[in-house]
UniProtKB/TrEMBL annotation:
Protein name: Pyridoxamine 5'-phosphate oxidase
Domain of life: Bacteria
Organism ancestry: Bacteria, Pseudomonadati, Pseudomonadota, Gammaproteobacteria, Lysobacterales
Species per Swiss-Prot/TrEMBL record: Pseudoxanthomonas winnipegensis
Domain Pyridoxamine 5'-phosphate oxidase N-terminal: 159-268
Amino acid sequence: MTARITDADTLQRCIGALPGPRDMKVIDHLDAWAVRWLQASPLAFFGFGDAEGIAITVGGGPAGFARTDTPTTLDLPPPRLDDPRLARVGKSFCSLWLVPGLGETLRINGQVAGVEDGRIGIAVRECYLHCAKALIRSDFWQAVPDPLAAPLTPVQAAARSRFLVLATVNAAGQADLSPKGDPAGALLQADEAALWLPDRPGNLRVDSFRNLLEQPRLSLAALVPGQTRLLHVRGTATLTTDAAARARLAVGDKPPKLVTRIAPAHWAVRDSAALAAAALWPATQPPDDLAPAEIFKAHVRLNRSSGLQAAMVRAAVAVPGLVRHGLDQDYKKNLY
């Protein structure tokens, strides 16, 4: 393998420069939109970590299984998590919340503040909406239930997976989750020594990759939409622009700009009680009162960034229809 990426500047040049301030869509609390999203969400992926590494699990059940009593706190019921033992006081927390029928996902990051009285208490640090590309590329909501699917080996599960969530943590212990989606065979490929994961066009924030440069241990959970088994992987990552690795993971004539090589320390296919309890498929119609474009706009307005660039972004999102049009065009033209 050649062309290994080892520094943040090379990484950003490879992916591309951000078009504006990096965190304009990020807020530091749960606003009314985020609370409504949580009320409609039957499934979330959770990462718990520290500077030594990170682990991932899934939570699921009736929509609204999580509770929030204040704008800066989130309560999770341990029985709804596949592995609640991962939640320990002081651990960094990251999460990705899905709403049936919507491609966008809500990301909430923070820290475990308490584990007691039948609850996992989270102190919220970040909240923002993530773009829909991963779920679109995976045809996630078009799947049908497949309860009789035959068990798969890890290699088979990797080859058939179309959606995954990648959990990383930086040297300071701050955790992050990132969704990935592709047709089967283009999302994960396995050889004798490693798994290979491509990067497709996204939001250009490169949080996960920056984390991996600082601390290369990762965890991921991958699935075949319609099934309730998860491929869990823990391993060590290397980032590369190696031409052969990129070519093998091309979709059509579009190779990824970079590839993550994962040397698995452990991987296994497990039934997920949380995924089964969420009953995601067939997908229902999304709530009429959740509008991703309006959420993006609201979060930009609530963001505390100052300066000329921030003011220009706020002025741009205030133009009627501009955010929705921009999202539609991005999803149409920049999937690969």
